[in-house]
Amino acid sequence: MSVVARKWQELAEIKDELAGRDWFPGTSGNLSIKVNDDPLQFLVSASGKDKRKRTMEDFLLVDGEGRAVEDTGLKASAETCIHLEVYRNTTAGCCLHVHTVDNNVVSELYAEQGFVTFRNQELIKAFGIWEEDGEITVPIVENFADLPTLAKEVARVIETNTKAVLIRNHGVTVWGKDGFEAKKHLEALEFLFSYHLKMLMLQPRWTASPATAAHA
Ligand SMILES: CSCCC(=O)C(=O)COP(=O)(O)O
Ligand SMILES: [Zn+2]
């Protein structure tokens, strides 16, 4: 099996799993997996597809400028430019983007602050953070309609330990060194978002950490 075929299979399986969680409402979301480092080539989901369905036209191979490597009638995800910035600015091998109610609400709650920090949660270990007082911070950017501007904004907030960026009232973009790690990070983050919102609904004055106290 060629590398492209193997990576296609890996990404298709991740897509099916995320679809099983209903994380692609209304054709939203996109996924990519790196096939080659130098020159950069990655498989990315085709734009506007129902990501719950599996077809032979789900992905296309693009280069380091986001252009299709082979002749195809398929259009790469409109947000390919964001995936490109992730690959340019991190060591990611896979990048996942989903719109959920939880990630949208968290992004809106903490948009003015520009980040949200999670502490005192076992699942922080999913990010390789094993310290007793470990924490994970997710930057939040405005949802610019101009996608190249949005992509540059995502690139601007990526630091060494950044694993994900929230886009305000849009969704979350998460990555990992490979498909397994990217999915682990995404599942862990969505757990943290959900827990956070449930705690806020049950105890409105609850805060996860001093850093998130601003809105309480
Ligand atoms: C219908 S959702 C609006 C576009 C979007 O945010 C998204 O994630 C899906 O875009 P794509 O071009 O990858 O289908
Ligand atoms: Zn999106």
From TrEMBL:
It comes from the Bacteria. Zn(2+) binds at H97, H99. Gene3D superfamilies: Class II aldolase/adducin N-terminal domain (3.40.225.10). Residues 9-197 form the Class II aldolase/adducin N-terminal domain. Pathway: Amino-acid biosynthesis; L-methionine biosynthesis via salvage pathway; L-methionine from S-methyl-5-thio-alpha-D-ribose 1-phosphate: step 2/6. It catalyses: 5-(methylsulfanyl)-D-ribulose 1-phosphate = 5-methylsulfanyl-2,3-dioxopentyl phosphate + H2O. The keyword Metal-binding applies. Pfam families: Aldolase_II (PF00596). Binds 1 zinc ion per subunit. Its EC number is 4.2.1.109. Its cofactor is Zn(2+). Keywords: Amino-acid biosynthesis, Lyase, Metal-binding, Methionine biosynthesis, Zinc. The keyword Membrane does not apply. Belongs to the aldolase class II family. MtnB subfamily. NCBIfam families: PRK06754.1 (NF005244), salvage_mtnB (TIGR03328). Catalyzes the dehydration of methylthioribulose-1-phosphate (MTRu-1-P) into 2,3-diketo-5-methylthiopentyl-1-phosphate (DK-MTP-1-P). This is Methylthioribulose-1-phosphate dehydratase. It comes from Laceyella sediminis.
